[in-house]
TrEMBL record:
Its cofactor is Zn(2+). This is Transcriptional repressor. GO terms for biological process: negative regulation of DNA-templated transcription; regulation of secondary metabolite biosynthetic process. Gene3D superfamilies: 3.30.1490.190, Winged helix-like DNA-binding domain superfamily/Winged helix DNA-binding domain. Binds 1 zinc ion per subunit. InterPro entries: FUR, Fur_C, WH-like_DNA-bd_sf, WH_DNA-bd_sf. It holds the Pfam family FUR. SUPFAM superfamilies: Winged helix' DNA-binding domain. Zn(2+) binds at residues 89, 92, 128, 131. GO terms for molecular function: DNA-binding transcription factor activity; transcription cis-regulatory region binding; zinc ion binding. Acts as a global negative controlling element, employing Fe(2+) as a cofactor to bind the operator of the repressed genes.
Length: 133
């Protein structure tokens, strides 16, 4: 994946820090801000948490990166992709994507609430296959 082109496609200024953030998120899928900071410090020893937040906010604003809110855990961040739900392991805290068809659920929510539903977010928790061995 060409991270420089990807940043440009979202009208984002290309900096080595941003390229590195995108690379980490692409490698790991989902990272919270502390995990991201720890990885970034390896590459940029003088980088501050504030700088990472600033860069993240710019990329979130352009919808290039999305925040995933996990109940009772820190939010994680991921590169925007096809709409999907998340499964979280209660033991090892691993987070994975699961592509679900939520169209029926969203239209049920809409007809029962009389809201115009625009988006949805689903987080399922349980025990992953490795932890249940
Ligand atoms: Zn697990
Ligand atoms: Zn995800």
């Amino acid at each position: 994946m060409n991270y420089v082109d990807l940043l440009k496609r979202y009208n984002l200024k290309v900096t080595p820090q941003r390229v590195a953030i995108v690379q980490e998120l692409n490698d790991y899928g989902h990272l919270n801000i502390d995990q991201l900071y720890n990885k970034m410090v390896n590459k940029f020893p003088t980088i501050s948490l504030a700088t990472i937040y600033k860069n993240m906010n710019a990329m979130i604003e352009k919808l290039f990166i999305q925040e995933v809110k996990i109940p009772n855990e820190k939010s994680v961040y991921e590169l925007s992709k096809e709409q999907h739900a998340h499964v979280v392991c209660e033991k090892c805290k691993k987070i994975e994507d699961v592509v679900l068809n939520t169209t029926a659920l969203m239209s049920e929510a809409q007809s029962k609430s009389h809201f115009q539903i625009n988006s949805s977010a689903f987080v399922f928790s349980g025990i992953c296959s490795e932890c249940s061995k």
